[in-house]
Amino acid sequence: FQSVGPVDQSALLFNNGQLTEKGLADLSILGAVGDAMGHYFDHSGNPIPCWMDDHIIGIDLEDLRKIPWSVLIAGGTEKIKPIDSAIRGKLFNVLITDIQTAKALMKEKTHAE
């Protein structure tokens, strides 16, 4: 079970002091829309290389894609873009969320087609 975070000041890594405002801005410029386990990804769920990658103990996003059952537990309006991108990139194959987020994700999918 994992979650995802946005690339803004509500991000856990920002609130814990691992990322600065400049770090958030730099990641946004690179196209990052979210993170999973401290690894950043773009709108399509592709990894965005970051200096933090070398400081994380755990699997990377490519290895996450290989896990047969990867469960994403996330909800809230600030996480719609990261959830959508993580699913689009096949980082997770099960989603547990709240009804409002699910409706927003379905609306997002309808507009994307």
How does this structure look, described?
This protein is of the alpha+beta class. The protein has helices spanning 12-15, 21-29, 61-65, 80-88, 99-112, and strands at 5-6, 34-36, 39-41, 47-48, 71-73, 94-96. Strands 1-2-3-4 form a four-stranded antiparallel sheet, with helices on one face. A two-stranded parallel sheet has the order 5-6. A hairpin with a 5-residue loop joins strand 3 and strand 4 (47-48). The radius of gyration is 13 Å and the shape is globular. The model has no long low-confidence stretch (mean pLDDT 92).
Name the average pLDDT. 92
Query: Approximately what portion of the residues adopt beta-strand conformation?
Result: 5-15%
Number of strands: 6
Oligomer: single chain
Give me some keywords for this one.
113 residues; alpha+beta; 6 strands; 36% helix; globular
Concise structural overview:
With 113 residues, the chain is of the alpha+beta class.
Blueprint of the fold:
Layout: E1 5-6, H1 12-15, H2 21-29, E2 34-36, E3 39-41, E4 47-48, H3 61-65, E5 71-73, H4 80-88, E6 94-96, H5 99-112
Parallel strand pairs: 5-6
Antiparallel strand pairs: 1-2, 2-3, 3-4
